[in-house]
Design brief:
alpha+beta, globular, HeLo_sf, Protein kinase domain-containing protein, Kinase-like_dom_sf, three-stranded antiparallel beta sheet, seven-stranded mixed beta sheet, 14 strands
Length: about 625
């Protein structure tokens, strides 16, 4: 068996060669506009390889240490990776195979050409060392091997490919890179593959603002690969890449338009009035959100159940100006998104001249929830059972994570681990695309009834596989506080009264709603919102999920005792105490959820500014949560 030390040195040396053959192929296809589709597909495979390669790099951008550890821990898999490197380089450095299999001929770049050039001979000579990489490869041959790598790399930098074959032969070049990446994943452990799958979203957005056409072509390439493959996992992978790029491009478009003082065009049929809906009391979720029946949609006599979130319009703001601003939010949220983002699809806005105080954002619900809502049809006898709103609501209404924690026993550890990973992964994807949620709280995480075998909602089971992120209205949501404060050590009269009113409210607002926000932001809400503040909010939710206590229940109701009305500004001392309470509670997670989960949550909840690569930290935290198992 090959020596692990030799495998490490060989792989480290061959990385630049693999990247060079990717580059040579890209240059070939980029030079001809007719071959741009091939260029995009090779660029996509290179992005996948770059995402995989980045997982091996250390702080010095060197792969030595991680590869060495992998080679000693899993020598057979490391040897498999080396074999894939060698196989690709042999194929793309062999003049005979290049011409016969792919319709390519290597030739010298003109500025490096000499009178006695013989590129095929040089390629055969300088790539011959690759044949020495077999099961007997060991450290004794490394000095000569490393010299050959340098010579081979220097040669490739002076050579280019020229097309001499047909298009179907060029197709085989792309397929070869696709197979190479697929085989690398087979020889890589699940943790590294999961990190690479996260990192690919960052890689494909390189140059999003400077060269927006490049990501768009990568999206087209991903759609092509999605249609071409029969592997369901690969279909999902490529489809998610295409959707993610599309979502990111919509964000970029809105940013550009808003910078010019413009808003995106919105079809008139996407702007509804209140008359288009039936707002029934049983569908109400809270003061600013409700389910509603959208009538005569998508066709006459049909009905769809939707979520409407009401955005208050301050008296100091012109309602038309607010409407134009919400068009940007609609434009982004109506774009296709990968399932991992957990963001709902926006169907339109509710704007009525008769009510200038609120504008609604209409969101699409899961297919088994939104469809088949029976209604009476005018002038016809409808054989279907016409259910009352109360009956329909009992079957289709969502339950928030907050409600679950307050009313139900703790979910199984396995369910909580998966949910935590989904939420943190969703946040990472949002931040990678350039989106910030700003209101991640347990009451904004909804679970709808699962789908039964006959396709109907099953109100006895909630769908924990597909959490629904809500909370896109700009106002802070006021939630019901009855029974919540019963967990507090002190009775209701100890809740702080409204300043200036001289009395205690029967149902005060709970300070825990603000405790989801990073203390730094609570000190000064005029600060520019940062990704770290979102990460803090997710950390607070993961804390609740792990302890199965809402924030106001922590430390025997310590935060809950500082409840106050929305019109009361909290003191800095209150904010500091809330942060300390949350921080202390984080240390209780280890004995319930394990030390890995506890460390992840505490990193999310850190009060110190996070310099450097926050996306990299989020990616690492997602990978760590993947190790948490019941």
């Amino acid at each position: 068996m090959a020596d692990p030390t030799a495998i490490t040195a060989a792989l480290t040396g061959l990385f630049p060669l693999v990247k060079e053959v990717f580059l040579m192929t890209q240059v070939l296809f980029e030079a001809d506009k007719k071959l741009r589709s091939f260029w995009a597909r090779v660029e996509l495979q290179r992005a996948i390889f770059d995402a995989w390669e980045d997982g091996w790099l250390d702080a010095r951008d060197k792969p030595d240490d991680k590869i060495k550890a992998y080679a000693f821990e899993k020598p057979l898999l490391a040897r498999g990776i080396l074999k894939e490197f060698v196989s690709l380089l042999k194929t793309l450095s062999d003049p005979d195979k290049l011409k016969k299999r792919y319709g390519l001929r290597p030739e010298r770049i003109p500025k490096y050409a000499t009178r006695n050039d013989d590129v095929p001979r040089d390629l055969r000579y300088y790539s011959d060392y690759l044949s020495s990489v077999d099961s007997r490869f060991n450290i004794k041959g490394l000095p000569a091997f490393n010299k050959s790598i340098n010579d081979h790399l220097n040669l490739l930098k002076t050579v280019r490919y020229v097309i001499v074959g047909k298009d179907y032969e060029l197709e085989d070049v792309v397929i070869r890179f696709t197979e190479f990446n697929r085989d690398l994943q087979l020889y890589t452990d699940s943790e590294a593959n999961n990190e690479a799958a996260q990192r690919i979203y960052e890689v494909v957005l390189t140059g999003l603002h400077s060269k927006p056409d490049d990501p768009a072509r990568l999206a087209e390439a991903a759609l092509f690969e999605q249609k071409a493959t029969i592997d369901p996992d690969a279909k999902r992978f490529y489809g998610d890449i295409a959707k993610f790029i599309g979502f990111s491009l919509s964000l970029r478009d809105v940013t550009v338009l808003n910078g010019r003082g413009l808003s995106p065009n919105m079809p008139s049929q996407k702007i509804f009035t209140r008359r288009d809906f039936s707002f029934d009391a049983p569908y109400k979720l809270g003061p600013h959100s409700t389910l509603a029946r959208l009538l005569d949609y998508p066709t006459k006599y049909q009905t769809r159940l939707v979520l409407v979130e009401w955005v208050p319009v301050p008296k100091t703001v012109n309602v038309k100006t607010k409407l134009e601003g919400l068009k940007s939010e609609w434009y982004v949220l109506h774009a296709d998104k990968p399932d991992g983002l957990l963001l709902p699809t926006a169907q339109g806005l509710v704007y009525d001249n008769t009510d200038s105080n609120f504008i609604g954002i209409v969101f699409q619900l899961p297919s088994h929830i939104r469809t088949e809502v029976p209604t009476k049809i005018a002038g016809r006898v409808d054989p279907r059972v016409v259910r009352s709103p109360k009956t329909t609501a009992a079957q289709r209404m969502p339950t928030s994570l907050r409600q679950l924690i307050l009313q139900q026993p703790a979910l199984d550890l396995g369910v909580r681990f998966k949910l935590a990973q989904k939420l943190l992964n969703s946040l990472h994807l949002m931040h990678t695309a350039g989106w910030m949620h700003k209101r991640i709280r347990a009451d904004n995480i909804l679970f709808f009834p699962s789908q039964s075998r006959d396709g109907e909602p099953d109100p006895t089971r909630l769908d924990f596989e597909n959490p629904f992120l809500a909370g896109f209205h700009s106002a802070r949501l006021e939630i019901e506080t009855s029974s919540v404060l019963e967990v507090a050590a002190k009775p209701l009269e100890h809740i702080r009264p409204l300043q200036g009113l001289g009395k205690v409210l029967n149902q005060p607002r709970v300070v825990a709603l603000d405790a989801y926000q990073h203390p730094e932001y609570r000190y000064n809400v005029n600060l520019p919102y940062r990704n770290q503040y979102d990460l803090y909010g997710v950390g607070a939710v993961l804390l609740e999920l792990g302890l199965w206590e809402t924030l106001e229940m922590l430390e025997k109701g310590d935060i809950g005792r500082r409840g106050y009305d929305p019109r009361v500004v909290p003191t800095k001392d209150d904010i500091r105490k809330d942060g300390e309470t949350v921080e202390r509670a984080g240390w209780k997670l280890d004995r319930i959820m394990g030390s890995t989960y506890g460390k992840v949550v505490r990193e999310c909840l850190t009060l110190k500014p996070m310099p450097g690569d926050l996306l990299g930290l989020e990616r690492t935290l997602v990978a760590r949560l993947a190790h948490c198992q019941a």
